[in-house]
Amino acid sequence: MVKVNGTTVDWLLEADNPSARYLTLRDLLCRPAGDSEMAEARSAVLQMAAVQAILAAQYPAGYWVKPDRGYSPRYRSTIWQLLILADLGTPATDAIGRACAHVMTATLREDRDLFSAHRHSTGLYPCLNGDLLRALAHFGYQGQPIVRSVTEALARCVLVDGWACVRNSSRTGGRATWQPCIWGCIKVLRGLGAVPASQRSPTVRQAVEHGTTFILAHELSQDQRPTLAQADSQWLRFGFPLGYGSDLLEALLTLRELGLSPELLPAQNLSAFILGKRDEAGHWRLERALSNTWAGFGAQGESNKWITLRALAALDWLASCHRS
User: Fold this and answer.
1) Whole-prediction pTM value?
2) Which residues constitute the domain of residue 210?
């Protein structure tokens, strides 16, 4: 592990935030799947105030807000709750199972084998599909026929269309105007990467390779956003949870999840940039927070365990090429 203040990991392992504790044991300390301490922490995630607030807002049939596809309103509807709960490391429950079943039924466009934000074809966002595949895999649905078919369809889609997105265009009806989106590429890779490497089809493997090549072609230490965005994004301002956007840490952790070597990254002083955001206590602050969520995940501008964990995991991966 990259050298850090010895108290920082101890801080992450404190019992007050079972989610950060569980994710630290899993993603930073790499405890084995059967580790009893990790299992205890994961179980405790269900008792967190944030998780309780999210689940309290759920309707018995499994959805939030209204029984539609669950994309709108942003960060209060069904899709976003599954993504946030997965990000927290929440274990599957009957209530979450009903939410997964609702999403797989209500959101699927059967004619395209893809999840859609709304009924017409412009709702087939690659980022949405990648995010949902990742969340459904987290909750144990990786082997479901719907999940397998969406995985293959998404891989085929990006191999044909690249990383162009209908939302990143001057005219949604004109495919020629669609422009690439690195955020969407990252979300797709996380979804496809949820399939174990040994179980990926040739199409999925090719799509993953295509996506990693796209990411590695970018200067990640500079602001990265959809091509047509007019203003600077928050790529270099770290947030949790992320919503539809992405940031530098998610990009690095995606490459880590895929098993790539950091030696593939051009020299960009990424470690120095991340370390430069560390405060005097050895923690990282929440720089960007979502609005209109059922629960809070820390005060913006204050030390944040999820951000600190993500920063340390990214630094650990970046340092791995220097370890024998």
Assistant:
1) 0.94
2) 48-322
